[in-house]
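User: Can you write out an input/output pair for a complex, sequences first and structure second?

Assistant: Here is one pair. Inputs:
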Amino acid sequence: MKKNDNIKINKEDFEFVQNDKKLYDQKFETKRIGYFADAMQRFSQNKGSIVAGVILLIMIMFSVIAPFVSGYEAQTRDDFYTYCLPKVQLFEGTGFWDGTKTEVTNEKFFAYYESYGAVRSYTVGEDEFGEKQYTIVRDTYIAGCVYKTFSAKDFVAMDEYDKSIENLEDKIFQPLIDTSWIDTSTNNGMVLENLYKQNANYSYKLTMKMAPIFVTDDDGNQVLDYCYLKDDAGNYVYSKQDGNTYSTRLNYDNYYKYLHNGNSPYFTLGSDQYGRDIMTRLAIGGRLSLTLGFTVSLVNIILGVVYGAIEGYYGGATDIVMERISEILSEVPFMIVVTLFSLYLADVVNPVISLFLAFVVTGWIGTAATTRMQFYRYKGQEYVLAARTLGARDSRLIFKHILPNAVGPIITSSVLMIPSVIFSESSLSYLKIIDFSTGNITSIGTMLSEGQATFMTYPNLILWPAIFISLLMICFNIFGNGLRDAFNPQLRGAE
Amino acid sequence: MDMFKYILKRIGLMLLTFFIIMTMCFVLVKLLPDPVTCQPGTDSCDAELVWREALGYNKPIMVQYWIFLVNVFTKFDWGVGFKMYWLKSVTSIMFQKLPPTMYVNFFAVILSVPIGLIFGTFAALKKNKWEDQVISVGVMLIISIPSYVYCFILQYILCYKLGWFPLIVSSSTNYFTWEVFRTYMPAILCLSLGTIAGLTRYTRAELTEVLTSDFMLLARAKGLTRGQATVRHAFRNAMVPIFPMIIGEFIGILGGSLIVENFFAIPGVGKMYLQSINVRDYNFFMFLSMFYVVIGLVANLLVDLSYGFVDPRIRIGAKR
């Protein structure tokens, strides 16, 4: 072997070609993008879905947090703070969001509201018939006076509290009303006396035709104390003792403060016909909807995937039998399932559980059908055969080899399950097929159906639940559509 | 012949499904307690007890089911109401309640099908322009917002603020007078909104797919105008999946909507179904449930069959 010693290679003879230029035939330097990464990337470009997702997150947080902040419970009732308008401490006295209402009334109602201090300000005008017409700004949070009977112990405690207070308006107990001037021999008189007995707010005199009689002092302000019951010494009478109980006329606003450590009620979104806080109920109803939506979807997807996987993988007789079962189940109207479950379980166990089971009985069929289709598509492919030849068991083939390929269409077909469950739940509770009006729970649909009777006069009662459920549905649909598009590989690059 | 066999097979399966659901329903309903609520000893209560005895209420469930089946298949007698429409035949009450439901739904479908088709076609032709986007947003809103919410909105605006329509429907049965029709208008509007939205979305999706296919290019290339190509080629092809949907809507006329009937107090089938659930009248519940099952089954069958009638390329029941 001869060496090529005579070849001389000088370093200077060589120069770098294209050293500074870009090389075009190399491998891609970018990382491989997986299916999920790609889906997430495309999802994040969909601005509408992102906005919907953020709103959803806010609504979920509202549902979780609001009941803790408000200090009320879903069924905390109060017979006197009913139909209160939204009020926030921050806006007190501004005329906006402070629980006041501007309304036009006649003299009779004006006198009534004025007598217990519910009128913040007013202007007088005349209507088309020349009658006096009052435009008043009324505070819906002033409940006025009520008749209430107490045991001696409670009465004495409150009486002690009253003694520390100067002004009569701030005291709990108000003087009783003198009704001895009413002529009860006539029918009208008896009606009038009844009115005074039932409504403690009448602290002024009425004519026999229920028109108010204004008694004014020298400055023109209305005086009320001429109507109060006085004893022989001329002092006001605050209570009537009957054995061990005291019947009193109390100022409910001050009584509420006394019971709640000096706090007055605040209903951020107002209160309903039973004096329950709408915001708390909204959040509790939202919790119910969201919890049901998420758990039902999760359970249905798991059930559907397992059922569809078994159907699709084994095929043959197994498939035919299971297909018939799911076919028959899918033909049963959902209303029948819900009704039967609620008839059987709602009273015995819990309406939430019965509703959950009703959703689960037929909800998985769609997911099962999609999974089955995907299994039929993939199970004949070569890579599955290869894995089987290598000795993979059935369960490994199903869950490790075939199912991951079917994930996309399964997600695509099941993301919209959550809003549809929420929609069904609220419709069913709206139709009162499922009863959420008792127990420490409520539902948006229940709130809507309870507010329906009075929604012309008190639109507040259904405005908030309607906005809440609509926003929830819209956001879930936009979010779900975005997710569906992102997970649909056919749309890749088409947007 | 293939088709005939297929239809027979489908009808057989349908009957089997119906029978299984009816049996399950019957057994589950009869396992629930259904006590006598009236005072025994009075004449009216004795009449109820006689009925209960005749329907076999004191016998085992399977015997009851046999009596029930014999009554249904020989006399079409589904029992009588015990909690509502006391001792009145379930079927006779049902036929009284059917007209208002069909009335409202018929007009709703008549109104919504052309509007939905027009909007969908318009949106597809103007794809991705502002017209399309406005229609898409509207459709998305109507589909997302629950129907009772826009019932509230429509009733508040049309009936209360504007005062165009009365708040509740007329109880008169002279359906074909303007006065009665006017009272039903808000309900018809509410019912049709959902259908319009669904049909618009479906039509738009189908038509955009057809409009981008190759044969449309050919149609334009051979000299058809855009309008001609759209009407003769695109629209006819897009109708293949849309037409069965419309047929489904027409069968749905019988079923009605529980929410809208409940909201507008329409004395129809849906409202009666709700009432039967609330007062737990099991005979009414059973009959109406089966009524809805039949509607669902028949609608499914007809929708599947209509594919074959609409599109000659689809041969139903043929094995390739």
